[in-house]
């Protein structure tokens, strides 16, 4: 019998490894940027075409590589950072497993130009699908120039599953932002399809955060810093008023590496619970420095999940640090005991005699006396008690009920609740219950309608139709609102602008990721336009929708939630009927667009059971 187990060729092994390391163009960007940082670069340029499908190029001014190092870098598990097993627990740099470059070269066409400062001439390599096609000397500046072309050209199935250009570009920007925020001393520039989209000059930590997330955060950041034997923590937290409902700016960095850590995030958000409404999330940018041997960064291929040895103590430190910072900057309500109007608390004197309290009474007062007599000046108030019972008598006549039945409130007949009574045999009466639900009678029983959800369903259909037919009516603003986006949000605006304007917004680009809102949809009278546009863009980024119809539905739903009536809103009879009529004219009147129940019916059998 022939042997069936054999070793895989390196080219196939590299492609298998690429499935973990290179998931999309953003994965390539992350690996190349981290390599440039490890090389000591002070200026890094990122160039892409077609959202990374055609070209991903990273140019740095780092220390470069020799001819031998440049060739060895594309071999599996070739690294300059690990020599013994103990080195795994003392890592201070980013890439270390030696899988990134060989994995990238196995699924793309790579061109590398690199030169060290001490060399007069550099090295030029061309590798296609793990095969070395060319190696020669060349003239080039100090540093490295990686050009990754036609990613997944030899794995069509992987290329087919790439998302739209908008989504892939957004993911690339996200990786760039994360790396830029933890390396403020390095200058970054981003060129998309031969246009420079953004540039982050070298700066301090706070200025880099503001450059990335927007100038609006300049006055919203509170500095935090603490140093313990377990960890050194510094960074910034956002003021409570800067909290967002969706896609809040929440970043953790450990030893210069971005990470996701829901457990630590809960430590910070718990300190905000009494300060922000339910459903909103605070912003924070936290940098942790710990001893490398107390964390494990190699538990996930993308190295965004990190295991900590001292998780619980760090959780407590983060929670205490956040509460202290919020209290220090008067974000937590406090009592001031140093005011001039403070209560004067007397000192207890043990030798003083206690004084019996005196009670003054008028023995001649009689509350049941109808007229004043003698020395008394009091008299029984003259109330017309009989007039208070007139309403109950009228209701009893209307209902025709016996004295032992529960009376119905004045002005509301029993037919209003449980029968379809009509003035002209065509108008059904509806009753608004606690300014939250609409009650109306149907053949099968009593129907209850959630007024806010019903209005959301109605507005969603209306806004979606306006977007598709491009007939939204815009109302010009007397004073245009200025709205500023982060780099990743601004990159999405050109792809959302047509639909945003179709619903009635009028936006003009002011440059530097800033837009002016010159007009808003006529239906949005009492809505903050800047907050709404922010939520619409954030929702589109969060869902990562690629289909045009899904993006349009996301925009319409955001607007419907913002413009719908709130609970507690008193409706007139005409408004109530209008909501019910329009709701049942909808193609889907039972549920909101995001799947929440609108209508509930209590049938006659269940109603009868309650009176047995």
Automatic annotation (TrEMBL):
GO molecular function: any one? ATP-dependent DNA damage sensor activity
CDD domains per record: HATPase_MutL-MLH-PMS-like, MutL_Trans
The alphabetized UniProt keywords are: DNA damage, DNA repair
Annotated GO biological process:
mismatch repair
Q: InterPro entries from the entry?
A: DNA_mismatch_repair_CS, DNA_mismatch_repair_MutL, DNA_mismatch_S5_2-like, HATPase_C_sf, MutL/Mlh/PMS, MutL/Mlh/Pms-like, MutL_C, MutL_C_dimsub
Pfam families recorded: DNA_mis_repair, HATPase_c_3, MutL_C
The DNA mismatch repair protein S5 domain, residue ranges: 209-327
Which NCBIfam families has this protein been placed in? Answer: mutl (TIGR00585)
HAMAP family attached here? DNA_mis_repair
PANTHER family in UniProt: DNA MISMATCH REPAIR PROTEIN MLH, PMS, MUTL, DNA MISMATCH REPAIR PROTEIN MLH1
Q: Main role?
A: This protein is involved in the repair of mismatches in DNA. It is required for dam-dependent methyl-directed DNA mismatch repair. May act as a 'molecular matchmaker', a protein that promotes the formation of a stable complex between two or more DNA-binding proteins in an ATP-dependent manner without itself being part of a final effector complex.
Q: Which family does it belong to?
A: Belongs to the DNA mismatch repair MutL/HexB family.
User: Mind telling me what this protein is named?
Assistant: DNA mismatch repair protein MutL
Task: Give the species.
Answer: Dysgonomonas macrotermitis
Q: What gene is this protein translated from?
A: mutL
């Amino acid at each position: 019998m022939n042997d069936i187990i054999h070793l895989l060729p390196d080219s196939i092994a590299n492609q298998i490894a690429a499935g973990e390391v290179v998931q999309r163009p953003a994965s390539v960007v992350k690996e190349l940027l981290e390599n440039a940082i490890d090389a000591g670069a002070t200026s890094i340029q990122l160039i892409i075409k077609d959202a990374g499908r055609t070209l991903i190029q990273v140019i740095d001014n780092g220390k470069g590589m020799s001819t031998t190092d440049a060739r060895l870098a594309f071999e599996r598990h070739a690294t300059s950072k690990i020599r013994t097993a103990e080195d795994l627990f003392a890592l201070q740099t980013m890439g270390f497993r030696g899988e990134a470059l060989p994995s990238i070269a196995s699924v793309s066409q790579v061109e590398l130009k690199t030169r060290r400062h001490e060399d007069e001439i550099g090295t030029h390599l061309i590798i296609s699908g793990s095969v070395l096609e060319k190696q020669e000397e060349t003239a080039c500046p100090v540093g490295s120039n990686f050009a990754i072309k036609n990613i997944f050209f030899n794995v069509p199935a992987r290329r087919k599953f790439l998302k739209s250009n908008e989504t892939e570009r957004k993911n690339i920007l996200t990786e760039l932002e994360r790396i830029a925020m933890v390396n403020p001393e390095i200058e970054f520039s981003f060129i998309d399809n031969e246009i420079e989209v953004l540039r982050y000059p070298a700066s301090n930590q706070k200025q880099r955060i503001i450059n990335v997330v927007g100038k609006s955060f300049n006055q919203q950041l509170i500095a935090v810093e603490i140093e313990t034997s377990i960890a050194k923590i510094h960074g910034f937290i956002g003021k409570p008023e800067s909290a967002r409902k969706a896609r809040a700016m929440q970043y953790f960095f450990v030893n210069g590496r971005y990470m996701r850590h829901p457990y630590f995030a809960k430590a910070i958000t718990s300190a905000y619970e009494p300060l922000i409404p339910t459903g909103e999330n605070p912003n924070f940018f936290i940098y942790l420095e710990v001893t490398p041997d107390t964390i494990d960064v190699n538990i996930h291929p993308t190295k965004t999940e990190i295991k900590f040895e001292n998780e619980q103590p760090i959780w407590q430190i983060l929670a205490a640090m956040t509460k202290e910072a919020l209290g220090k900057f008067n974000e937590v309500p406090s009592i001031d005991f140093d005011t001039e109007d403070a209560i004067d608390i007397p000192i207890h004197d043990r030798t003083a005699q206690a004084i019996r309290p005196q009670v003054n009474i008028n023995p001649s007062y009689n509350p049941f006396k109808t007229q004043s007599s003698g020395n008394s000046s009091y008299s029984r108030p003259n109330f017309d008690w009989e007039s208070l019972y007139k309403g109950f008598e009228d209701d009893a006549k209307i209902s025709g009920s016996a004295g032992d039945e529960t009376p119905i409130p004045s002005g509301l007949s029993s037919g209003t609740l449980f029968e379809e009574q009509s003035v002209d045999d065509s108008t059904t009466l509806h009753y608004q219950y606690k300014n939250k639900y609409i009650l109306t009678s149907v053949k099968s029983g009593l129907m209850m309608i959630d007024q806010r959800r019903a209005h959301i369903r109605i507005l969603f259909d209306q806004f979606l139709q306006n977007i598709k037919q491009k007939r939204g009516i815009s109302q010009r603003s007397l004073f245009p609102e200025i709205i500023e986006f982060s780099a990743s949000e601004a990159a999405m605006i050109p792809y959302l602008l047509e639909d945003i304007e179709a619903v009635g917004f009028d936006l003009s680009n002011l440059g530097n990721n800033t837009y002016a809102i010159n007009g808003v949809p006529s239906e949005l009278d009492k809505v903050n336009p800047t907050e709404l546009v922010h939520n619409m863009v954030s929702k589109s980024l969060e869902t990562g929708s690629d289909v045009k119809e899904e993006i349009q539905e996301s925009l319409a739903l955001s607007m419907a939630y913002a413009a719908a009536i709130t609970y507690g809103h008193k409706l007139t009879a005409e408004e109530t009927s209008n909501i019910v009529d329009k709701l049942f004219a909808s193609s889907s009147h039972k549920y909101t667009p995001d799947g929440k129940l609108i209508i509930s019916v209590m049938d006659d059998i269940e109603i009868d059971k309650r009176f047995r």
